[in-house]
């Protein structure tokens, strides 16, 4: 299991390779993108949050997946250094050279995939393959690409299913793939949120196999019957069919299906006759026709769910707050004005899910008043009051600022960043909390997810940039874990 390797101190790694690192500093790699670091106080505050998080991770969880900042320990999900790999491009974009160098040295020496380990295709693709590819494209460092190719090859057995819809899990040592242990079905988002990464892996490695297997999944999903473009949240890898009467949602288990329809179209140069963008447009019409509602008193526009595929439920996951940004990105690239209107309305509702809580942090799930059953138009159930340091709303704010240049979105983000600092910062990092409804008893959960560094703080940093084009959205597309992949015309 190589646990003794994982426990190597970062200082030892850096010392061993000091000469190489100095060489890297003197001579940027060919194709490397240059970032200047923070240019204002808000960006510097985000860098401080990154360094505080990194310090705790380095001290107590180095090489492990997630930091447990309160108990000063770690949590391993796949044992692939998720926080470290997710952070590579964040550190690079913030010009944190020393931290980037020590992370790179660990990846080169200790990130190995020939191990007896069960992993989830989707999670490892968006975090590890995506993180390695993004680091490769930004730095020009071939080592990251070689690691990504090795991992990509070990994920390919997932596609050896009777239907071509991939199994959700694979042992990257034995190369045996299977459905999840808890169900015969995969989440729809799991099988449709790997295409950006697999296509880029093919283009970067000049090996068509990755793009081929992932594109085949696109086509199979495209050919299935849908409800006005809307998809159930479960699909079976053996039959290749959606689960009957499964929930329809823009939140958990389906969210990034819709995101990747648009982003794949952008990634491949916006072809006019691409069924992916047609599926995206059709699904957004379905959202507008079937899922959008407005609360009776305060007129909050929100997106609900269809239980059993038909019964409306006024519930919206925080995960759904990625959608305003995706809709605006689509509008920037020619989608209709109805998308802009919905994006603007939803962004405001998502903001209110933060502002209506005494902590000014959003819960995991919000409910909405339909017929006066609640005194308030937005309410939170006790079991849904946790905040996991999620990025989705900050992601949407970033797109609104980057595309419109309106600095109001920066101010909205700053309010939320200060709330994170107030209620989730602890001595050795940041922690998810169990209760956004009570500032005096937030119930810290002792977990810093890898997406805090990989996504949330990265989007805050870019949101607060003086240059809204710090990342050129005509040249790069962000994957679902905020890793950058280049847009190609072919």
Automatic annotation (TrEMBL):
EC numbers, comma separated: 3.2.1.-
GO terms, molecular function: calcium ion binding; mannosyl-oligosaccharide 1,2-alpha-mannosidase activity
Pfam families assigned to the protein according to its UniProt record, in alphabetical order: Glyco_hydro_47 (PF01532)
Binding-site residues for Ca(2+), renumbered to this chain: 480
UniProt-listed GO biological process terms: carbohydrate metabolic process; proteasomal protein catabolic process; response to endoplasmic reticulum stress
Primary residence: endoplasmic reticulum
GO (cellular component) term, any one: endoplasmic reticulum membrane
Cellular localisation: Endoplasmic reticulum membrane
Key words, A-Z: Calcium, Disulfide bond, Endoplasmic reticulum, Glycosidase, Hydrolase, Membrane, Metal-binding, Signal-anchor, Transmembrane, Transmembrane helix
Membrane disposition: Single-pass type II membrane protein
Catalytic residues as annotated in Swiss-Prot or TrEMBL: 123 (proton donor), 255, 364 (proton donor), 392
Disulphide bridges: 321-350
Keyword Acyltransferase assigned: no
Family annotation (Gene3D superfamilies): 1.50.10.10
PANTHER family the UniProt entry points to: ENDOPLASMIC RETICULUM MANNOSYL-OLIGOSACCHARIDE 1,2-ALPHA-MANNOSIDASE (PTHR11742:SF55), MANNOSYL-OLIGOSACCHARIDE ALPHA-1,2-MANNOSIDASE-RELATED (PTHR11742)
Purpose: Involved in glycoprotein quality control targeting of misfolded glycoproteins for degradation. It primarily trims a single alpha-1,2-linked mannose residue from Man(9)GlcNAc(2) to produce Man(8)GlcNAc(2), but at high enzyme concentrations, as found in the ER quality control compartment (ERQC), it further trims the carbohydrates to Man(5-6)GlcNAc(2).
Record family assignment: Belongs to the glycosyl hydrolase 47 family.
Name by which UniProt lists this protein: alpha-1,2-Mannosidase
Organism: Anopheles gambiae (African malaria mosquito)
């Amino acid at each position: 299991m190589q646990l003794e390797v994982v426990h190597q101190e970062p200082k030892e790694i850096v010392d061993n390779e000091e000469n190489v690192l100095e060489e890297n500093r003197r001579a940027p790699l060919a194709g490397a993108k240059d970032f200047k670091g923070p240019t204002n106080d808000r960006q510097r505050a985000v860098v401080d949050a990154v360094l505080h998080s990194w310090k705790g991770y380095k001290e107590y969880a180095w090489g492990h997946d997630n930091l447990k900042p309160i108990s000063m320990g770690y949590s391993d999900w796949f044992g692939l250094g998720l926080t470290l790999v997710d952070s590579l491009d964040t550190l690079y974009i913030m010009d944190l050279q020393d931290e980037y160098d020590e992370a790179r040295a660990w990846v080169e020496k200790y990130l190995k995939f020939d191990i007896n380990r069960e992993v989830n295709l989707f999670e490892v693709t968006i975090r590890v393959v995506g993180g390695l590819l993004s680091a490769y494209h930004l730095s020009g460092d071939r080592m990251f690409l070689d690691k990504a190719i090795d991992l990509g090859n070990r994920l390919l057995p997932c596609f050896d299913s009777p239907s071509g819809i991939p199994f959700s899990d694979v042992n990257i040592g034995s190369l045996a793939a299977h459905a999840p242990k808890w169900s015969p079905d995969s989440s729809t988002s799991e099988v449709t949120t790997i295409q950006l990464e697999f296509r880029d892996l093919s283009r970067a490695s000049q090996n068509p196999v990755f793009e081929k297997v992932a594109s085949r999944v696109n086509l199979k999903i495209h050919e299935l019957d849908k409800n006005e473009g809307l998809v159930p949240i479960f699909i079976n890898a053996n039959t290749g069919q959606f689960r009957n009467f499964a929930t329809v949602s823009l939140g958990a288990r389906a969210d990034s299906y819709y995101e990747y329809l648009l982003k794949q179209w952008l990634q491949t140069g916006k072809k006019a006759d691409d069924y992916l963008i047609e599926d995206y447009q059709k699904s957004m019409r379905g959202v507008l026709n079937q899922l959008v509602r407005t609360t009776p008193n305060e007129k909050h526009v929100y997106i609900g769910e269809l239980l059993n595929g038909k019964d409306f439920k006024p519930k919206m996951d925080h995960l759904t707050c990625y959608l305003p940004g995706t809709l605006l990105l689509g509008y920037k690239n020619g989608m209709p004005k109805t998308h802009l209107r919905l994006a603007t309305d939803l962004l405001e509702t998502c903001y209110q899910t933060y502002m209506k809580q005494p902590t000014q942090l959003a819960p995991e799930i919000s409910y909405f008043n339909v017929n006066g059953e609640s005194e308030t138009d937005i309410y939170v159930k006790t079991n849904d009051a946790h905040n996991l340091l999620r990025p989705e709303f900050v992601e949407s704010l970033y797109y609104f600022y980057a595309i419109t240049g309106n600095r109001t979105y920066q101010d909205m983000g700053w309010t939320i960043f200060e709330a994170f600092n107030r209620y989730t910062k602890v001595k050795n990092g940041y922690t998810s909390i169990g209760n956004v409804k009570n500032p005096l008893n937030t119930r810290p959960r002792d977990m810093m997810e890898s997406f805090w560094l990989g996504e949330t703080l990265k989007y805050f940093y870019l949101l607060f940039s003086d240059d809204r084009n710090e990342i050129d959205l005509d040249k790069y597309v962000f994957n679902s874990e905020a890793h950058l992949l280049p847009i190609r015309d072919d």
